[in-house]
Design goal:
- There is one protein chain.
- It contains 3 helices and 18 strands.
- By secondary structure, the chain is an alpha+beta fold.
- The strands form 5 sheets. It has a 4-stranded antiparallel sheet with strand order 3-4-5-6, with no helix packed on it. A 4-stranded antiparallel sheet has the order 7-8-9-10, with no helix packed on it. It has a 4-stranded antiparallel sheet with strand order 11-12-13-14, with no helix packed on it.
- A hairpin with a 5-residue loop joins strand 5 and strand 6.
- The termini are far apart.
Length: 295
């Protein structure tokens, strides 16, 4: 009789289940054999199996409960789990060149290759609420994104324009007052396609896939006063040719890659000091770069 009484007993486990986006919960119950039944009747394999299923179900219900509660908290707090579109670029402006950068005023700044009032691209500002303002639109198309200088101004480049039509380096205030303060002449660099980086010495550095002493691209430095210095001219040999953009390493050196050249003619990875000493770190081969393009 005692065994029968334990066999028929049940244990009630409450759990929560979401009823929808309104955050209303319904309490349900799952009836399963109790823990003391297994202790008194270990030979009853069927009930042991049911109890193991109960433990798995309880674990799932506990996880579900926390997921639902977390979702409710995020909904109440207003956190967004999906990206929100702040501004849609239309035929009059775009595409965007490079990533946006955040200013000290909390707004974001960027460049567009085309469009604008003169269809030659633009420098723009966009607020976190998505209000976009064109700051500059009366010069050659920007080559890439922007970088903040130590003076709080925005710095960038154009890939055409200037007296030699080889591009310029410009700076602009966050209200749109722009100054072209350096030019490329083909020998120091030409038609850059990537952005500038600001180094610890306060100068800006960049790379162009054309120009230089061998017309195979160059790494250059630009002072805030507008002096352009060619640090290295590529020649398609072991050092490579047609360099892409640069990044500043923690060691203070500049790192980049080339599209062509190197030991196998498929591009390289290099580092270069701000004084112009270049070291080839890797030459791409067919087995690690079948397309022959370093990206």
């Amino acid at each position: 009789a005692a065994a029968s009484m334990i066999h028929d007993s049940q244990l009630t486990i409450p759990f929560l289940q979401s009823r929808g986006c309104d955050g209303v919960f319904e309490e349900l119950h799952e009836r399963v054999p109790p823990l003391d039944f297994v202790a008194w009747h270990p030979a009853e394999h069927e009930h042991i199996r049911r109890f193991e299923h109960m433990k798995m179900a309880q674990r799932k219900f506990t996880i579900s409960r926390w997921v639902v509660l977390l979702s409710l908290l995020l909904s109440v707090s207003g956190w967004a789990l999906e990206p929100q579109t702040l501004f849609n670029f239309q035929l009059g402006l775009g595409p965007v060149m490079g990533a946006l950068i955040e200013g000290r005023d909390g707004n974001f700044y960027g460049t567009a290759r085309g469009g604008g009032p003169r269809a030659s691209g633009a420098v723009f500002r966009v607020t976190p609420a998505g209000v976009l303002t064109i700051l500059v639109s009366d010069q050659a198309p920007p080559a890439a994104g922007l970088v903040f200088g130590n003076d709080g101004l925005l710095y960038g480049m154009t890939d055409t324009g200037g007296p030699f039509l080889k591009g310029t380096v410009f700076k602009t205030t966050t209200s749109g007052v722009l100054t072209n303060f350096a030019v490329f002449n083909g020998t120091n660099a030409a038609n850059p396609q990537a952005g500038l980086v600001l180094a610890g010495d306060g100068n800006f550095y960049g790379a162009s896939q054309a120009g230089g002493a061998h017309l195979r691209g160059a790494v250059f430095g630009v002072t805030p006063a507008g002096a352009v210095t060619t640090l290295f001219s590529f020649d398609s040999a072991a050092a490579g040719a047609a360099p892409s953009g640069l990044t500043l390493g923690r060691d203070g050196n500049l790192y980049g890659s080339t599209v062509l050249g190197g030991d196998f003619g498929r591009g390289t990875i290099f580092k270069i000091t701000t004084a112009g000493a270049l070291t080839t770190l890797h030459s791409f081969q067919t087995n690690n770069n079948a397309l022959g393009i370093a990206e």
